[in-house]
Amino acid sequence: MGIDENKAIVQRYYDHVSRGERAEADALFADDATWWVAGIPEQFPIAGQRSLTEHQAMLREKLAPRLPNGVRTTITGMTAEGDRVAVEMENFARTASGRIYNNRFHLLFEIRDGRIHAVREYLDTLHAEDALLDGWTGRPD
């Protein structure tokens, strides 16, 4: 696939997620897809590499209750080369405790044969921990 097709796959992923179409978003991933988040797992429990299924379960079980009104995501840039698509984005939310979560991300998607095989997520881990992880210690799994 070409870079335009790869960018379209990533854009479709975010379109499905923004509409709450989890099954359609999941269908864009390879069966053995992984999701890696920057940080030291012992210090930032979201950090590390997981299967897509494990990553999603952690988000549903641990983070979703802390963000009762969801998260507004804005893609601010997308660049592709070969089988990789880089996404710059911003998330904004108010937490259950009333704190503001406003983080910026860089995600690197690896696309092969029309499916997402891996995601690497970079973010301000200090802000995420401060705003989202109050009282959550150790790895969630």
Automatic annotation (TrEMBL):
A Pfam match: SnoaL_2
Record's superkingdom?
Bacteria
Show where the SnoaL-like domain sits: 10-116
InterPro entries xrefs: NTF2-like_dom_sf, SnoaL-like
Enumerate the PANTHER family for this protein.
Answer: BLR2505 PROTEIN
Q: What is this protein called?
A: Nuclear transport factor 2 family protein
Instruction: Give the source species.
Output: Micromonospora carbonacea
